[in-house]
Amino acid sequence: MENVIAKMLEDFEQGRMTRRQLIKNLSCAAAVAAGGAPLARAASGAAPTKMRAVAVNHISYQVSDYGKTRDFYADLLGMRVVGDTGSQCFLILGDSDTFLIPRNAPPGSPTPRIDHIAYTIADWDKNAVKAELERHGLKPEPDTENSFHVRDPNGFDLQISGKEMKATS
């Protein structure tokens, strides 16, 4: 965690991050360090979860022209392009398992928009994760052997995945 915070401060000092971005990122880091969602659930009186998010797996980004988006992020930030299908691709962030999926939005959809975010959780067990999601009153929809989609309290599409969910080449 110390390395992450040091990197954020360095980015701020070098002008690569605004003060607002720094505060937002430090707040997120503090929430993660404190246990995030389980603390919020415990404060609300609900039983704490048995799942623990350990990373952002991917962000699904609907755009009007995925190719322009692909080229922009690959050129500007050095993201590695894999699995390009002609309508979407995976952009790998550095040496991590986190990736961005720019994809052409369906006709008539508003763009640009983030249509879902996937979080990787520790200790993936498909049946146990499904049971835990259902225990929280959610209706898990399987996406892959290593992920489910659910709706957060605002109706946003949230994907919960295991560490084995990776960008495909």
What does this structure look like?
The radius of gyration is 17 Å and the shape is globular. The protein contains 5 helices and 8 strands. It has 2 domains: 2-34, no CATH class; 53-161, Roll (2,3-Dihydroxybiphenyl 1,2-Dioxygenase, domain 1). Helix 1 (2-13) packs antiparallel against helix 2. Helix content is 34%, strand content 27%. By secondary structure, it is α+β, with helices and mostly antiparallel strands. The protein has an 8-stranded mixed beta sheet with strand order 2-3-4-1-5-8-7-6. It has helices at residues 2-13, 19-34, 37-44, 66-77, 126-135; strands at 53-63, 80-82, 90-92, 99-104, 113-121, 141-144, 147-151, 157-161. The longest helix is centred in the first third of the chain and has 16 residues, at 19-34.
The best one-word shape is globular
Can you tell me the number of structural domains?
Answer: 2
Low-confidence stretches: 31-44
Q: Could you name the CATH class of the largest domain?
A: Alpha Beta
Question: What is the H/E string?
Answer: HHHEHEEEEHEEE
Gyration radius, to the nearest Å? Answer: 17 Å
Strand content: 25-35%
- What is the straight-line distance between the termini? 30 Å
